[in-house]
Amino acid sequence: MEIWPAIDLRGGRCVRLEQGRYDRQTVFDDDPVRMARHWVAQGAKRLHLVDLDGAREGRPVNLATVEAIVRAVEVPCQLGGGIRSEETIRRWLAAGVHRLVIGTLAVNKPEWFGRMCRTFPGRLVLGIDARGGRVATNGWLQTSRQSALELARRFAGEPVAAIVYTDIAADGMMRGPNVEAMAEMQAAVELPVVASGGVSTVDDVARLAAVPMAGCVIGRALYEGVLSLSEALRVAGDR
Question: Which residues are annotated as catalytic?
Fold first, then answer.
């Protein structure tokens, strides 16, 4: 199982939110580039970046910071947050981002997202952020009536690189992932599913690896030192 250390960007700094709430923010480092180098030095083979400002504004905001990260590390970086046009896709890919996570427009403009998947095969990731099994959009500020499984099945036949499935209730709370929901998603589609939200112990990593999930994103637990990246990599078999 792949381990994806998360670097969430807001105002050019490395932060974490609780349950996607912008009023519950913790700043972990003023230098995200330094943080990216740190995780790679610790053994990370890939990084999960989020432009939190972009998610709210619907456009690239932390572009310079992401470009600096991509230049600084020699591992693939995937990025989500505010990717809502073909122009933005091309801009991020030109900046050196390996693949892009798109959520809001996959829900609001499914035909467009399918077309973009075919235009950029293997470079787009379906980002499914769920609250109570229902898909949330626009930086998690709105919840749709569509279920997470319905959305995943809709694009299962497209050349999507993967699905990043986030359980909002668990995100940033350090209470463990919703393994049952993650397993249900992985069983529902023949796409790699990356679990996100709540991973905070070696046991959490082991339970997700046993599903088996294709990968998991880990954020706050790494930053607060309650889970070491080396242990997560070892348990996941990500060597």
Answer: 8, 129
pLDDT at 21: 72
Q: Which two tokens stand for residue 228?
A: 């070491």
In this structure, are residues 163 and 126 in contact, taking their beta carbons and an 8 Å threshold? yes
40 — phi, psi (to 5°)?
-65, -40
**Per-residue confidence (pLDDT) for residue 60, from 0 to 100:** 93
Number of domains in the chain: 1
Q: Give the Å distances, CA to CA, from 36 to 72, 144, 171, 232.
A: 8, 33, 20, 17
| Phi and psi, residue 86, nearest 5° | -65, -35
How many other CB atoms are found less than 10 A from the CB of residue 76? 14
Q: Which pLDDT does position 181 carry in this prediction?
A: 93
Asked if 235 contacts 205 with a C-beta cutoff of 8 angstroms, the reply is yes
> DSSP 3-state assignment of 190?
coil
pLDDT of 102 reads: 96
Other Cβ atoms closer than 10 A to 68: 17
At 173 the pLDDT is 58
CATH for 68: 3.20.20.70
Instruction: Give 82's DSSP letter.
Output: -
Residues of the chain with pLDDT under 50: none
> What range does the domain containing 42 cover?
2-236
| pLDDT tens digits, one per residue of 2-57 | 999 999 999 999 997 776 677 777 888 899 999 999 999 999 999 999 999 998 88
Q: Where are the beta strands (DSSP E) in the chain?
A: 2-10, 13-18, 21-29, 47-51, 77-80, 99-102, 124-131, 134-137, 142-147, 162-167, 193-196, 215-218
